[in-house]
Design brief:
Elements: H1 3-23, H2 32-42, H3 49-61, H4 65-86, E1 96-97, E2 100-101, H5 103-106, H6 109-128, H7 136-150, H8 155-164, H9 172-196, H10 203-230, H11 233-236, H12 242-245, H13 251-255, H14 257-274, H15 283-294
Antiparallel strand pairs: 1-2
Length: about 300
């Protein structure tokens, strides 16, 4: 990973952290417990991969940092809400997230449920309260895209498929369908919302960017599955080995670790191919791709 990219990524991560700190309600504002737990769930953790993708796509399309920052914050709030709900006893029942107790452990289940609800609402409040695109129609389409990515045709639907298939054997296409929804939809939304903050890209280029996002979304999940199988809890910041313990279908359970790693590399190559028409203008997207593939591998 180049020093140049590390400096760029650190700057964007600091930018989104500062923005989230200011956009989230202060813990001293009533209801204090809910607002404090929202800040607990969002701040001070995570690699901020989705914001990095939004910033990289925004740079490619000529979007202003002010616009992209709002989009990146909205996507990260949706992601954080999904983690809070995924960790609940009725879902994955986990006690550790980003190296600290999960939200329902630190507070309680009812509070964690409300945290997720509130973070999702705040995300859409941000998208509707700022001027993010050159035309109202583009901005409406951005809002619609994030809503679909979070809903039954995206992340929530993918989680439903996941829960319905615990203990079952899935084919590789079935597993990919699940993760196109569960993980890939929000990653694609991060890329495309960032891209729509600017106006430099034509329809063909936007389609290529969407193909890139689809491949990198799947690659992200493949790497996640390998890390869950091989990394330690201390490294992950969450409980390692949970997928195998719960008998959940993963890329590792279907393919084995070695083939899963090969698949991650194949998906990286396909993502790179989708960016060929952008030449050197997509350097940040390629660097974030490498960051995703190589994390703790």
């Amino acid at each position: 990973m180049t020093t140049d990219f590390q400096e760029w990524a650190r700057g964007r991560q600091e930018c989104i952290e500062t923005s989230l700190q200011s956009l989230l309600p202060a813990a001293a504002i009533a209801p204090e417990r809910l607002h404090g737990s929202m800040r607990y769930a969002v701040l001070g953790g995570g690699k901020r991969v989705r914001p990095l993708l939004a910033f990289a796509a925004g740079e490619l399309s000529g979007g202003s940092e002010e616009r992209v920052t709002i989009v990146a914050a909205a996507v990260e709030l949706i992601h954080a809400y999904s983690l809070v709900h995924d960790d609940l006893p009725c879902m994955d029942d986990d006690i550790l997230r980003r190296g600290k107790p999960t939200c329902h452990v630190e507070y309680d289940e009812a509070t964690a449920l409300l945290v997720g609800d509130s973070l999702q609402s705040l995300a859409f409040e941000l998208l509707t309260g700022s001027h993010l695109a050159d035309t109202p129609q583009v901005q409406l389409n951005m809002i619609k895209r994030l809503a679909q990515a979070a809903g039954s045709r995206g992340m929530a639907g993918g989680q439903a498929i996941d829960l319905a298939n615990v203990g079952k054997t899935l084919s590789l296409p079935e597993l990919e369908l699940m993760h196109i929804h569960k993980t890939g939809a929000l990653i694609r939304a991060a890329v495309m919302l960032g891209a729509h903050c600017g106006n430099k890209l034509n329809d063909e280029q936007l389609e290529s960017l969407d193909h890139f996002a689809e491949h990198i979304g799947l690659a992200f999940q493949v790497v996640d599955d390998v890390l869950d199988a091989e990394a330690t809890t201390a490294t992950l910041g969450k409980t390692a080995g949970k997928d195998a313990e719960h008998n959940k279908p993963t890329y590792v359970s279907i393919l084995g670790v070695s083939r899963a790693r090969e698949l991650a590399e194949e998906l990286r190559h396909e993502a790179y191919q989708s960016l060929e028409g952008f030449d050197g203008d997509a350097v940040r997207l390629r660097q974030v791709t490498d960051f995703i593939i190589q994390r703790e591998f």
